Amino acid sequence: MTTAPAIEVAALEKSYGSTRAVDGISLVVSAGEIFGLLGPNGAGKTTTVEILEGYRRADGGTVRVLGLDPIEGGARLRPQIGVMLQDGGLYPGLRPLEVLRSFAAFYDDPHDPIALLELVGLTEARATIVRRLSGGQQQRLALALALIGRPSLVFLDEPTAGMDPHARVSTWQLVRDLRDAGTTVMLTTHAMDEAEQLCDHVAIVDHGRIVASGTPAELTSRAGVDELLFSAVAGLACNELAAALGVGPGVVTELRPGEYRVAAEATPGLVADLAVWMRDRDVRLGDLRAGQRTLEEVFLRVTGAGTT
Ligand code: ATP
Hints:
This protein is α/β, with parallel strands linked by helices.
């Protein structure tokens, strides 16, 4: 049995005056997956998500969210979606439990506010007024608010921004649990480790267009078939190494101090020659990667924000 996609976007366009914020985005988010929308500042992510949420009207293209047009079908759609807002302090003078109880009243079958506070790790802070919560606690409250109506689709905007490493890991697990229970999650994030850990599919947006998409594994393995990356002490003689490897000058480059790229297929022979060259100079190897980049490296490459 095939399930209808949770989100379908085709040729989406939106301009603000002469700024083309969204310039022909098409994407499909399957029901029950975690989908990450990534991109540099100003890429058009928020505009896209706000159109999906029904807060903004598109200039062109088609949008279906849970089978509905987000504007025409807004009244039916809103009870089925949850939105995590960056500004969790909507009611700075209330306590988390009070905020959740007042939001719960809008839904037919809301989560139990006390159980939800436990779920997001705010039980101890439930009686602290929102203004006095730490940044990470305010994020968790915003997450709880997004979930209070038991949405089948939830939009998370930088869900772990400002959280400490423990809170991030437990929030990631919570998001996976949501997905495993059948909820579709669309998240925007600047944290590439988060996208790599969490997302089933990602789309990288730049200047209002999708410049790369796929599973994180597809993007990281597809990107680097023709290269070998390694780290060692800074200032290695790149041209000398290139000659020893039998590749042309310029094929070995120092990307950042101590991080090197050999733009050639990482054959066993090439790796062996590199090891021999380093042994002869008593240079210690840090990291060595062949055929794979991190999602952050892919991001920097496809968004043109890096030099590689
Ligand atoms: P960030 O990662 O910084 O949140 P983003 O990818 O969410 O960025 P958007 O907020 O969608 O990007 O902005 C896309 C472009 O549209 C930017 O050039 C931005 O300056 C512009 N823009 C966004 N909202 C408005 C608005 N209300 N009026 C005019 N221009 C806007």
